[in-house]
Amino acid sequence: MKLSRLRSLVARGGAAGLIALAAFTILLLNPAEPRVASATSVVFTSGSDVDTWDPILPASAYQNWPATVCTPTPAVGLGAAWTNPHKASSFGTAAHPCQPGAGFTANWINAWADMNSQGPSGHSWTKYSTTVSGSGAFVLNLLADNCSWIYLDGTLVGFQDTTLTPRT
Fold it and tell me: How far from chain centre, in Å, is Cα 144?
């Protein structure tokens, strides 16, 4: 069995009303089996079992954040001064308007207990982490309401820009 740590950083920004949340699924397929309905698979999804930390808030709102913050290399990384580890709050599979039509079903999660944005003009950084285990190929689906970076075992493996398009 291979044990991996999936980590996600999410930068929040933009106009009031943006919701600081994310949803994900991870499908672990056994490569020795055909990719058909009978193949063995294990699905990990976002929920209240996901680890998170208190958000990191900038001193002031980012100017032109889609161009200055949503870049392939995050300004706040995994090694930042994350504090107060705790479990994520989970809001269900239809809590956010982006969830329907995403192509997968997962709980929408947040680092705090409500769906309101935090920080100057709603800007903040959040970190989520979960352990996945098994052998085979991982398929990761991500939907976040702002730019996000996905790490597997500390290596950057994915980036979502501000288009709000689900990523696989």
Answer: 6
